[in-house]
Every structure is written in structure tokens, then in C-alpha cells.
Amino acid sequence: MQVIWEDDLNARAIDQWTREIPVSAGRGDIYDANGELLAGSTPAYSVYARANAVDDAEGSAQTLSAALSLPYDEILKKLTDGSRSEIVIVKRTDKSSAERIEGLDLSGVYYARDDARFYPYGALACQVLGFTSYDGAGATGLEEYYDNYLAGERGEILFETDLVGVDLDGATAAYIPGTDGLNLALTLDSRIQAVAEDVMARAYTEYSARAARAIVMDVTDFSILAMVNIPSYDLNEIPRDDLTSLNALSRNALVSDVYEPGSTFKIVTAAANIEEYLQGNANAYATNRVFSSARTRTVDGTTIRCWSDHANGKHSNQTLAEALNNSCNPCFVDIALSLGKETFYDYLSAFGFGRATGLDFSGEAIGMLLPEHTLRDCDFARIGFGQSIAVTPLQLACASAAAVNGGYYYAPRLVKSIFSDDGATVVKTSPTLVARTIGEEASAILTSMLEGVVRDGSGKKAYIEGYRVAGKTGTAQKYENGHIAQGKYVSSFVGCFPANSPKYLALVIVDEPQGAYYGSTVAAPCAKEIFEGMIEVLGLQPVEV
Fold this sequence. Notes:
- By secondary structure, this protein is α+β, with helices and mostly antiparallel strands.
- 33% of the residues lie in helices and 22% in strands.
- The protein has 18 helices and 21 strands.
- The strands form 6 sheets. It has a 6-stranded mixed sheet, with no helix packed on it.
- A hairpin with a 2-residue loop joins strand 19 and strand 20 (483-497).
- Helix 2 runs antiparallel to helix 4 (95-104), helix 11 crosses helix 13 and helix 12 (320-326) packs across helix 17.
- The longest helix is centred in the C-terminal third of the chain and has 20 residues, at 519-538.
- The chain is elongated.
């Protein structure tokens, strides 16, 4: 027994002979892509007591009440509670309070390090960073997802005691140090995050919107540069007493919520069509092929209309580029139906719809994509222009990036490395190619067309002289209880620059703006402001044509 069960028996013996006070490990810090501290810890201490080891409960309660500015009755109740071996007197008090207690030499009273979390930028990227629980464990966001790395391993102070927990005379305490947690280096750029938050906060206020959101990413490897959810909250003043509000404010809707994307989804439909045309599919529309000028299409007895009345020759004799410029729904109905369900669904799969993107973040939704074999033609026709399908904003951003970057779909990421305090890299993430969506030629053609949307079409308010912005607007109706919600829209714009060699992409979403609601009017200007802010903070030079 002593040989085979040695470790277990030793552990049981030590547990009987000693009482322990936890020593929190230092929680790892979180930095942005440039080494800017986004989440750190400040020294703090927690005070504990063992009621059975307290000699003078009333006197100790009076002393602790004065030292910690806590009610005497509350402390006395804890010091006389013999039902528990260790009792927390106060969590995370300052160092000076702990030092005062140390000098008082109160029997049965101890303190240990228990650092407090702080966030230098307050509300910046609050839904991405997340926060820790009252006990210091990761509760939401990256704090929760990477808790195993950040938390470290706590230590203990062991006291030899008798059967009822009273310290043994002459016994010395044993100190087992904790192992500090590791640090995260994010792909987020706090400068871009700040720019995007400022822009979206203004849009949220100006349009009295329900919410305003944005994603900024590097299309060459799907590194997330910014994630914005407005309204937000200060991570240093978490509203823990209002769980309903906290759950709403802390939710990263860009990852966890779905919506009908509307016309921004036409990027995917156009991409599939161009690739099929280049591959020789006779059903695909050639880039110079003219669509029917009729305002409506009837599928399965359902009439689908263009937003324009097509009066006075509007939207007549459109090519694919012009259909994108005009955001003409019937043209994209034609494309979807001409490609057929099987082919189009193959592209939807390659572009990542119907599954998680693989972002290193908890709670990612997979969207809503109707099974191909259950799909009615009228629903399939609507998918062509972004209805009858629900996606997460992250899915749409990734699909759009894969459409303009040469057809490469990567797994998006928020963390680029995990490292120790001495600078040693423990984990380094690398871009992970998930799928090829379209070829480089099709991607270049599509991006050129999307540049035309910004230069000549509905995306004009995202145009920036000299920087070759490409993009697509979207204005989607919202549904409630299966019916169109009158007066409720989602305004959006997805764009990238420079169009000749895409590097940066932004998806902007304004949910239920009041007054103006078209994506061209509400969302496109926001994208322009974000891009202009990036140009300034990154020192980007104009593109030579």
C-alpha cells in the first residue's frame, strides 16, 4: 500500500494535517498587434480567516473593520462561522490594507495575492476581449476562450493545524508559488479598432439605430484587425448587477448573430457566375451578356421585383458589371437559376456558408442555409440576391475577402501568438488555408467590377480618390414572426482597397437606422471614414494607376 499508493496517501495525509490559503497565479496580459496592452492585472490581495484558529473574534473583528473599512457585524459573523474551514473576509483589497493586517498579527487571519483585472482602454473591443468572473476566471470573449493559457496555475500557503484547524505551536507555513499565466498577442490593431468604434458610434447616434457593427480584416490571411459592436460598455465597470443588460452588451454579435445579408451577398453570386463562365459553363452569364430589362421575375408563382421601377429605361440592357452597379435583384435571380442548385450550393460551401468559420472565439453561429434537397425554386432564386439565407457578419466578411483576394479562404484568427513573460513564444498561429473558392482571374474580374460599383454605382459614397476602393452596398428588410417588419432595415456595405491588389476589407452594418436606411446612404460613408482613418494611422500612400 505504501509503495503503490504512495502519492495518493501522501496527498491525503497533507490534506488532513494542513489548511491551505490559495495564492492566485498572475493572469497573463493581452496585447494588440503592436504590443499595446489591452488587458492586464494590477496587484491586489484577498484576506481570509479560519474561525477555529481565531483567538479573539470580537477584538479581531473590530481591528479588521477599522483596517478594511468594512462593517463590524459582517466581519464578526464570518469570524465566528465554524462551519467552513476558510472564510473570505474581503476580495482584492489594496496592498496597503494587506500590509496593515500583516502587522497586526491576528491569529487565524491571513492574506494572499489575488490580482485584479484592468483594461487600459475601457470599452475598446470589449466584446472581443471579454471579462473575468468574480473569482478571476475567464467568463466571456478571449478571456474565456484562452483561459487555460491566461490563468496559469495557482499556488498555496499551507499551515500545519490540529484536527479542528488550529495552528500548531512552532509550526512554519509552507509556500507553494503559483505559475503565472501566458500572454496573448492579438491580430487586432488598437488604432484601427479605435477609428472603427468612433465611426460606428457616430452612426449609431446619428441614425438612432438599434446597433452599429463593423469588421476590419486583412484579406491576405484573414487576420482580424478590428471588431466593433455598438452599443458597448466599460470593461472596468461591468454591470454585473444587471445580467440582462450585461448579456446584451457583452455579446459579440458579429460572430454569434445571423441576419439576411441582402445585396452584399451578390458578391458571392457574381463570383460563382464569373468562375463558371471562365470554366466554360454555357449557362453562366458572360461579362458582356445582357440581362432581361423586365423589372420582375416570376418563380413558382412568386413575383420577385427590383427595387427600381425600371421607368425611362432604367436598368435596361444591363451587363453583369452594370447589374452590380445598380444592385438589380432580377439579374441575380437569373444567375442563380442558370447555374442551378447543385453548382451554386457547391460555391456556397466553398465560401463557408452553413458552417463555422473556425475563428478562435466561443459561441460562433453557423448561419441558416436551407438544405439543397428541400429548397423550392422561389427560395433558391432569392438566395441569389441575399434573401432566404441567414449568415453571420463574420461569414460574409470572410466570403467577401475570399472573393477578392484571388479565391483563397483562410480560417480567420484573433490571436497571432501566445508567449511567456520572458518573451519566449509558446504558440504561434499561422494562416490556415481552408478552401479555394474561385480562381485568381475570376477574382480580379470581380474586384474590378466592384471598384466600378464604388466609382460609378451605388457605392459612390465610399469612394476615396487615389485609393481604389471596391465594394457593394446592401439594404435588407427584416422579418418578425415570418413576416416583413415594416420600416425595419439592415443597411450594410462591404468593401476593400486597393482594388488592384486587395489588402484591407471592412464590413459595416447599421441595424434599424431611422430616417435614411439605404446601404448606399448609411453604411457606405461609414466604410469610407474607416478606410480614411486607416490610411492616416497606417500611413498608407495612394495607389499609382
